[in-house]
Every structure is written in C-alpha cells, then in structure tokens.
Design goal:
The structure is a single chain. This protein is about 75% helix and about 0% strand. It is mostly helical and about 800 residues long. The longest helix is centred in the N-terminal third of the chain and has 32 residues, at about 160-190. The chain starts with 7 loop residues before the first helix and ends with a helix.
Length: about 800
C-alpha cells in the first residue's frame, strides 16, 4: 500500500533521464554555472528519499508499480525497504557532489555537456537497479549501467587505453548480465513470480527447488562480474582511465556495488545454503587479499584506491556469505562507510592531479600548505578507511570483526582474512592521505594550489559525513543500518549501534592488532611495494592479460570462421543453410527421444496412389536430368502432382495457389536459365554430389518426420471454431480462407506480396542481363556490321 510521497519515487527514478536530455543545452547556456543547476536534480531526489527514511525504519516495506509489458508479466515497479532506500540515498547523495565536482574538474571541456548527459543516464540506471521490483525491469536497468559506464569510461575516446578499458568493462559486465537474465528467468520459474517482493516472501521455495544450483551459478556470474570479484576483478582498475568524477562515482556508490546489492537482496531466499556460505566467502576472501596486495604495488593514487575498492567489494561479498546476522550488519555498515570515504578520496586524488599535474605518489610531497582543504578532507576520509575512532569506518570494523569471529565453522578463517585485508587497507589509506601532503615540498608539473569550491565541496562533505555518522552511531543504526540488516538477513533486527565497544572482546583485540600492523606496514610500504612487484613480475600472467588473449583468440576464430562460411560461394551458403535446417529438425527429436511413427496409407484410392507415383516419377526425373532446364521442367511434375493431391483432399484454394506457383516457377526459372551463361551440365565432383544428397535427404526426411509428428497430435479445433464464429461478424466475409489472409493475417499477406514483388524485380533484372560474348564473337561482330 502506498503512503504519501512514495508515488513520487517514480518521478525520482525518471528525473535523471530528463536531466540527461537537458544537460547539453543547460551546459551550453549556463557555462560554468550549469553544474549547480544540474546538481539540484540528485539533491532533490536525496531529499525526497530522506523523507521516507523514518517510515522505512519503522519496518514498513512498499511495492507499487505500473503495467509495462503485461503480456510478459513485466511491470515498471518499485520496492522500498531498508536495502533499496539506503542504496538510493547513496546514489543520489554522492551523485549530487559528483555532479558539482565534474563541473569544476571538466571546466571548459568542449564535451562537458555530453559528459553530464552520460553521468545522469548512469545515475538513472543505478536508481532503477536498486529500486526496481520486477526482475526483468531490474535487468534492463542493470544492462543500462553497463552501456552508460562504457560511455563514461571511454569518454576520452581518442586515447587507446580509454577505449580498451571501456570495451573490457562492457564485455565483462555485459556477459555477466546475460547470465543474470537467465538466472532471473529461472527464479521466475522456480519462485512463480517475477516480482521481487513476492520472491522474497516465498520462503524456502528457491532453496528447495531443483533449479537452485543453476540459479546460484547464474546469479553469481552476474554479481561477480559487476562487482569485480576474482577472477573478474581486472576490469575495475582499468576503468580508472575514465575522468576522475566517473571513478569517484563508480567506486563509491554505483555500478561496482550493484553486484553486492543483488547478493544482499537475494540473501533471504538464497542464503544459508552450503553453496552460498562456501562460494561467497571463498571468492570474496580471495578478492579481498588480491585487491590489497596488488594495491600495495601501485604508485598511482587512483590505482591504489581502485584496488582497495576491489578489496572492499571482496570483503562485502565475503561477509554477505557468512551465515551470521552480525557479519551481515558489519557488511552493511562497511558499505555505508566505504561509500563516503572512497568517494572523498577519489575526488581528492583527482583534485591533486588537476591542480598539481600528477597522481604519482613518488612525485608528490609537501602539498599540505598549498592545498589545506584537500589535505583535511583526505585525512578525515583516510581515518575512516583505516578504521579509527570516532569515524563510521571504526564502527564498521568492530562489528564485522565481531560477526566474522563468531561465525560458526568458518569464523576463524573469515576473521583472519578480514584482519589481513584491513592491515594493508590501513597502510594504503595512510599512504594515499599522507604521502602527497607531508614531507618536503616536491616540484610538480603544475604549480600546486587549492582548487575551486566545486572540487573540494564534495570531498570535505563526504569525509565529515563519515565523522558525523560515527559520532551519531545510535541514530545511524536506527535510521539506516538496522532496516538494511533486516532486509538483507530476512529477519527483524533492532539492536542498537554504538561508537565504542562496551566490553573487551576479540573484535577489539583484532582492531588493536590491525592498527599496530597497519602502522608498521605503512612505515615499510616502499619495501612491501618492491616485494610485491618482484613476486607479481615473476608470476607474469594474470587475468588482465588473459582477457586480451581471449579477445585475440575470438577475433582470429571469427575471422577464419567468417572466411569459411562467407567466402562468396552460393553453393557453400546453400549447403550451410540446409544443413542447419536439418540439424534443427533432428536435434530436438534426438534429445527428447520423441521419434514419430509411420503414417498409414491403407485408405488411399487407386487414383490418389497414381498421383503419388507421378510425384515420385517427377522427383526421379529431376535427379537424373542431364541439364538444368530439364530438371526445372521435371520439378514441375512433382509440384503439379502435389497440387492435385490438395484438390483430392478438399483444399481447392491451396491447390489453385500451388498450380499458380508451380507454373510461374517453371516458366520464370526456365526463362532465366536461357538468359544466363550457365554451364548446361552438373560439374560437381562425386564427393560434392554425395554431400549435397545427404543434406537434401536429411532436410526432406526431417520435414517428413516433423509432419508425421504433427499429424499424430490430437486435433485442436480452437482456431477453426474461432474463425467460423467470427469471420462474418468481425471481417464480414464467409470465405474463411480469404478472411484469414486479408483480415486476420493481413500483415502476413502484405509481407508475402512484398516478397513476391522483390522476387519479380530480381527476375526482371536477371532476364535483362545479356550473356557475355565470347572473344570470337567480338572479332566477328565488326565484320558483320561492315557487311550490312
């Protein structure tokens, strides 16, 4: 049931698409002020969603929608609960500052209007993913995020690296999207509904279904590719070729968390199984460790942050798979904290690059005086990322450690992996925030100075938000965390959230260990960077290189296959086409084992048998014909015999059509053959004749067997009764065949007429072609003209 204001969420979902259409015009008219106007769109969406938080926090969920494609059960619907509301708040809230940031970062860029348009399309797609209730609608928005991210990542399309990164992201996430669509269809079959709220209310239906294994694999493929889980993690760091506003938005609140959202959304109906609690922690843990280890190797600020995002996504997936509500709570809080500090740090990195001319951490230092606001934002965000009090990142770390440690069975392993990952995350956070600003002043390519307000408004606001949520942990827990935990776990959850632990426990001890080891790793980060670099250099091969090898293999195979099947030979085209038809006819019978039984001929009269024999004689004449013209005429014998059989069995209209088609076919083909310079005899080799005979026989036998199967089926008189009853009352005609062709199937008839017309024009063109003259005729022709 809707309540006041929920209906406006539909407009909130559509607003970014309207902004995308207006963005180029507004940018051209308003120039540097366009960002302020455009940022009002996500800001208003954020305010609207914020007005719904108290109702959602009280435990209410809402589903409402409109019919979109009712024949296929597709609705344009939304589902509001703690999970979708928090995600939508992050998308719109952080999106507001990303739009402002883009206004300053791309100031004066000739394509800034197009960039804003792409950005709003991306924003609308993400809102659609997290708010959609119908699974097919969710998939459409899911794929739209892949398309729009392709446009954003490849925005600087003149650079080879940008184009490669965009194509790589599209291929990986698009392939996962196809798997996801199959998974959604299977969910609809197993769960009996395509509406998310109904699926979530189905209890153990999916878990008990025989399709659960297939659904799990397909959903994981979709989620893992989108959220860059190992071994699909390589596309995300490469996406750093995009402008920094895209990186900040992509990594903090949007596309990369779509997979995490999906896993969290389906956890109540697919979680708590052996597959779920094994595969998710396994791949999430590997992704966490791979992300921080490779991140230590980097010196580019954006790449360091990108790999920590990979690691954070792995941590979220690992905790989502843990069969422990407290671990899920830790994942929820960490997701919130990560969105805030990662958005701030990415904008900080972009500001340094924009104002100092480089992102290389080895070429930066002493910027604290030149860029004090950016420095403050970096420190505040990094403290939250490192998990230090009183920031929300500290709260997240305490809760996730508590949940991981107390998970039955795999708790120790999950906690150990989380500890190792957080240690290196601490070191990377300190390196990103402190290395560029502390120490002696380093000469940079550009004279470093503080950027305009558009560049630092977002970083400082998001960093301070992380501090505020930590200080107000109790309110944050009630309004945001507990409703989301309830949605993810499928159980009502109402425990209070505290900034500081109430007693000494293993979670606090692990936090102390994390900080101590993190400080040590930060002080030795140069040594660790060299060590990791040597190890990875020795290993050499990785998924990123494997992607290039796979694409190269696909391109080479496609080229050779195309040359094979599209070599310009009509004979090859005909063989492949008819061979494909034969395969399509026989494979279903072979797979299902549903072979037809022979049709009896005991009721045929002697004159009916005569025309059957005549048709066989015509077929024999075609096969043994000495030239093509004779074969064409002989083919008419079979066609006329079939036309007479139609008449004998009570189908005069069909018989008349067959007579006309056969007559025209024989006349036209014979005429064309006499006008073209074709070899009169069959010059095929014996092997080619056998191949063609096998294909032709396969198609003929397959069609015959299909017809025998159809004849054996019980007769369904629904259509004849419909046409008999309504042909006169609706179409005002008593001849059923004519009414069907002209009225009920009028568009089919128009299409057939168009085909005949095109064929006639083609025949006319062939008839007008003059045979090529031989060399002797060309020499004799002038002599004849002179004699005349």
């Amino acid at each position: 049931m809707p309540f006041s204001g929920v209906e406006a969420t539909f407009w909130a979902m559509l607003a970014p698409f309207v902004a995308a259409a207006l963005a180029p015009v507004l940018t051209q008219k308003l120039k540097h002020n366009a960002a302020w106007v455009l940022a009002a769109v996500p800001a208003l969406i954020f305010v609207h969603l914020l007005s719904l938080v108290s109702s959602v926090a009280s435990g209410q969920t809402y589903a409402l929608g409109l019919e979109w494609v009712p024949s296929y059960g597709v609705t344009f619907s939304i589902y509001l609960d703690g999970l979708s509301t928090l995600f939508a708040l992050l998308i719109s809230g952080i999106g507001t500052f990303v739009v402002l940031y883009a206004g300053g970062y791309l100031k004066g860029h000739p394509k800034q209007g197009s960039f804003f348009s792409f950005l709003f399309l991306f924003m609308g797609a993400m809102l659609g993913v997290v708010l959609a209730n119908n699974l097919i609608t969710l998939f459409i928005f899911w794929e739209l995020t892949s398309i729009t991210s392709f446009l954003l990542i490849g925005f600087d399309h003149l650079r080879t690296a940008s184009r490669r990164a965009a194509i790589q992201a599209l291929v990986v996430t698009g392939a996962g999207g196809m798997a996801l669509l199959a998974g959604f269809i299977l969910i609809g079959i197993a769960g009996g509904s395509m509406e998310m709220n109904e699926v979530l209310a189905s209890g153990d239906v999916l878990r008990d279904s025989n399709l659960y294994g297939a659904i799990f694999v397909l959903i994981c493929l979709g989620a893992f590719t989108k959220s860059a889980q190992f071994p699909f993690h390589f596309w995300l760091p490469n996406a750093m070729e995009a402008p920094t506003p895209v990186s900040a938005y992509l990594h903090s609140a949007t596309m990369v968390k779509a997979g995490v959202y999906l896993l969290m959304r389906l956890n109540p109906v697919m979680g708590d199984t052996a597959l779920w609690t094994t595969i998710l922690p396994l791949f999430g843990g590997i992704t966490l460790l791979a992300g921080v280890i490779i991140g230590i190797r980097q010196t580019d600020l954006k790449l360091m942050l990108a790999y920590t995002t990979v690691a954070s996504l792995g941590l979220l997936v690992m905790l989502t798979g843990a069969p422990n509500t407290v671990a899920v709570k830790g994942a929820v809080i960490y997701l919130l904290a990560h969105s805030l500090f990662k958005g701030s740090l990415f904008m900080m990195a972009g500001t340094i690059d924009h104002e100092a001319g480089t992102r290389d951490i080895t070429k930066l230092g002493g910027l604290r005086n030149a860029m004090p606001i950016t420095f403050a934002a970096a420190v505040l965000a990094a403290l939250s990322m490192a998990g230090l009090p009183p920031f929300i990142g500290f709260v997240a770390k305490e809760v996730l450690y508590d949940g991981a440690w107390n998970t039955i069975g795999s708790g120790f392993v999950i906690a150990l992996v989380a500890l190792c990952g957080n240690v290196l995350m601490f070191a990377l956070a300190m390196a990103v925030a402190l290395k560029p600003f502390l120490g002696e002043k380093v000469e940079t390519p550009k004279h470093a100075h503080e950027g305009p307000i558009l560049l630092w408004a977002g970083p400082i606001t998001l960093a301070l938000s992380g501090l505020a949520l930590g200080l107000l942990a109790g309110y944050a827990g009630y309004l945001f965390v507990n409703p989301m935990v309830s949605a993810v776990s499928g159980l009502a959850y109402g425990k209070e959230l505290y900034l500081l632990p109430h007693h000494l426990n293993m979670a606090l001890a692990m936090s102390v260990i994390t900080i101590a080891l993190g400080v040590f790793a930060f002080l030795r980060i140069d040594y660790l960077r060299g060590l990791v670099d040597r190890i990875l250099t020795t290993i050499g091969w990785g998924p990123d290189k494997g992607f290039d090898q796979l694409i190269t293999l696909v391109v080479r195979f496609s080229d050779r296959f195309t040359r094979l099947v599209q070599g310009g030979s009509m004979v090859t085209y005909m063989r492949l086409s008819f061979a494909s038809v034969a395969v399509m006819l026989f494979v279903p019978m072979m797979v299902t084992g549903n072979w037809p039984t022979m049709v009896g001929f005991e009721n045929l009269a002697y004159f009916e048998w005569a025309f059957v024999v005549l048709a066989v004689i015509g077929l024999y004449a075609v096969i043994t014909a000495k030239n093509r013209v004779t074969g064409i005429v002989s083919l008419g014998i079979t066609g006329f015999s079939v036309a007479v059989i139609y008449t004998l069995f009570g189908a005069p209209d069909l018989s008349l059509t067959q007579f006309m088609v056969e007559t025209l076919s024989v006349v036209i083909l014979a005429l064309v053959m006499t006008r073209l310079d074709l070899k009169p005899k069959d010059v095929r080799s014996k092997e080619d004749r056998v191949t063609d005979g096998v294909i032709a026989g396969g198609v003929g036998l397959g069609v015959a067997m299909l017809l025998m199967t159809i004849v054996r089926l019980p007769f369904d008189s629904t259509l004849p009764q419909f046409f008999t009853e309504y042909s006169y009352s609706i179409a005002h005609g008593r001849n059923l065949v004519n009414v069907i062709l002209v009225d009920f199937r009028g568009f089919d008839t128009i299409g057939e007429i168009a085909v005949v017309m095109v064929a006639g024009l083609s025949v006319l063109a062939l008839i007008r072609v003059r045979p090529k003259k031989s060399q002797s005729e060309k020499l004799v022709e002038p002599v004849k003209e002179a004699a005349e």
